[in-house]
Amino acid sequence: MPCYSFAGLVPVVDPAAFVHPTAVLIGDVIVGPGCYIGPGAALRGDLGRLIVQRGANVQDNCVMHSFPGKECVVEEDGHVGHGAVLHGCRVGRNALVGMNAVVMDNAVVGEEALVAAMSFVKAGMQIPPRVMVAGTPARVVRELTKKEIEWKSQGTAEYREIARRCLATLAEVTPLTEMESDRPRLGGGHVTLAEAQRN
């Protein structure tokens, strides 16, 4: 993986974390055990510290950055969807930031809260625990159900498993020119949010 020291600070990656080879870590970045950092993610700790705690994931093409002297934190089992931007904020334990959402400086996403895809969380917003926020700017829509929180936890558990499988099996290869006749399929029992809401 491309890791760069900055002003003498070297990124720290727990051996039980997976950081994709195309992700970039710069400077004051700390990645905890069981974390998954996806392809194309950029964690740029050249102004403030970036922390991804145990079991959290920061998916493909996400950006984490902060401002001088401040931290940007994804707490334990936090889940940051594809293309999201986190800037100087805190994502609480077991919370989810949806795809292409933006969470700004000094905002706090409460424990087990959910930021809907494409939402814009303004600087300083304090999102209560176990609610859904959506929109531009984001507003509290409603409380989350127990089933929705379980759905989120299931998705994060799948990313912890992906991290383990990547550490064990991911390898750069030359692509095949045609599909094998007995090509296996990857299994998975993931339930969509819409399905969780219906049940």
UniProtKB/TrEMBL annotation:
<dbReference type="Pfam" id="PF00132">
    <property type="entry name" value="Hexapep"/>
</dbReference>
<feature type="region of interest" description="Disordered">
    <location>
        <begin position="180"/>
        <end position="199"/>
    </location>
</feature>
<dbReference type="InterPro" id="IPR011004">
    <property type="entry name" value="Trimer_LpxA-like_sf"/>
</dbReference>
<protein>
    <submittedName>
        <fullName>Phenylacetic acid degradation protein PaaY</fullName>
    </submittedName>
</protein>
<dbReference type="InterPro" id="IPR050484">
    <property type="entry name" value="Transf_Hexapept/Carb_Anhydrase"/>
</dbReference>
<dbReference type="InterPro" id="IPR001451">
    <property type="entry name" value="Hexapep"/>
</dbReference>
